[in-house]
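WARN retry 2 of 3 for item q-0093 after timeout on previous attempt; input resubmitted unchanged.
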Amino acid sequence: MKRLTLTVLLVLLTCSLQAQSRRGVKNTSAVNTEANANQAVDTSAAKGLIYNVEIPDSVLRRKVFFFSYHPNEVKIGELWSPFLDPTGAQFNDPLDALNGNYYLGKGVVGHPHLALYPTPAQGLFYRMQPDENIVYAKRPENVRLYQTMTPYTSLSYGSSLKKDYTLHLTHTQNILPGWNIAADYQLICPEGVFSNSAAKNHYLDFSTNYFSRDARLQAVLGLIMESYTIGENGGLQNDSYFTDGGISNFAGLPVNITDSSSRHERRNLYGRVSYNMVRQFEYYRYRDSIVAVSDTLQHDSIWFDTIQLTDTIRVTKPHILNPGVFGVEGGYDHHRRWFAYNEEFLNQHTTLFWTNDAYADHRWRNPLKIKIGLRQEHLKMHTLNATLSSTVRFSPFVRLETTMGRSLIKGEAEMGNALSGFSQLRNVKSDYLFAGSYTFAFDTTRHTLLSIGAIIQQKMPDLRILYDAGYSLRPIKTEHFELKFLYNRSHYDDQGLPMVDIGLRASHLSHNNWYDSTLAVVQGNNDFWIYQASLTLRLAWRWLHFDMQQLLQYTTDSLQMPVPLWASKNSLYVDFVLIKNALRVQIGGDLRYHSAFYSDTYDPYTGLFVRQNDVKVGDYIWADLFINLQVKRATIYLKAGHINTIWDKSRNYFLLPHYPGQKFGLYWGITWHFFD
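OK item q-0093 returned
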């Protein structure tokens, strides 16, 4: 009876405090989470996962989480719940994402695309050739890994008034505590704008990950399978058909190769196993806690929920010198392309690594984190059963990270040495990368950050360029400097609190290379600078939301790296709940623009982007309108794309030279979540 009385009093007291909080603070999704942070709370000890203690309890109730695969990592950097994603599906196309990636394309979803905002010094990795379907090709880094406490299925379908359609199916579940399996399938079938420019892209990946009860043993295994066909027109026979507006039906434009298409296949097998020599937990002490949470669909709806919390008893204070974590990682990437001639690219790699970062950060943070490793790669490219280039590379690396108060300092060094192959390259030098960054947090919650970083890198060109140039190219040298300011409230604040991301970048490049209009490889003799600035802003006032991204660039040599001076993407929409806990609505529009410049054009015969100086691209506004409805666990969207073509009959809306964008179209679709 006394226990019941105390419980009732606790509930009444919490209600009273919450009522006062509701009058003074609207956002209550993370109530009590920070109060528990100092008690080393681990809400998933039974699963063996260290969930971030700042995740609101309303999210923990969902019991479905996903995270990204990061090479050589032994911790989950950030967990996310798929039910917190905004309803803005708009159209199932990553080019519409406001994520810093802004691309030009052939006007068709699923075709090769070219980045408007290049990112020099991306690291010492190699491809078959530059820009090979880089937007849509999956890599382990953009595959979702899951941990669930209940089976989860997501089904999406989209279509249009034309023959475009997309299908996306995901299923995942834990078959044992800490052991998850997942499958993800995606089909993209755009119609295209020319007589033969449609595409059919299949993406299928399987993954499984395992975390032992104390998270000492971790394992990840995944398989990515891709098969896509791209309609290749071969280019226009006469540019005047398009530039002079002599024909209105794009599908009737004369082309060189009207019935041809390229076919691609890709297989990527990857995995990682690590074991922590440091014991994480000795025993658990369970207790219940009554917390106040707010519904992610109804901002003002507050109820009480009881979740089970776990106090983990720390063993000893961590030391820089400890047995640490040992791991091995490997992968097999096989990519083939059939068109004018067959091409094949093979990358086999294995990495051995060790780190002293063996403790859970929410209990203890190691004052100096060290990671060392050795990566072995076997790179091979051949065509028509003849090996074009092959090499075995060994790349040792070291990474350091230290925390001093609110300051975070990181350093990284990596070398890459070709020990065999490339016999034609008599002047081969080792690739190298040196990087460092300093980040200062203005508050203890790390919502406001200022960081400065630098990268010095030397890297040989990709294999296809080396072969086409007769192995006579010099390595590309890059010095990259960046200053960044970030203000971002917790990802789980559903009130649309401000997010500001400002970046200033300067890159100095030497010996840059590209393909000219004759498909010959050219390497610049002069060095040049490219200056870049970006502003990403998310604002909200009550039900009104505004997202935007502004990109400014200037290059001292537009021949070596042509870029638009300004690129912009803006979204203005209203977001409100029409029926409590049942119907959420988003209505708004997107507006995109970039200034005119001589962009690279796409050559279908080789599947390459080549330099041209005849036709400028851009100086044209692209506008879309959309409606999104979130009904319980389903999201329904309707999008009117490129609406300004209804009244604007001009001919200057190229995406790439000779490839117009899609005209006005209506797109719709539905996404349904099942997690019972």
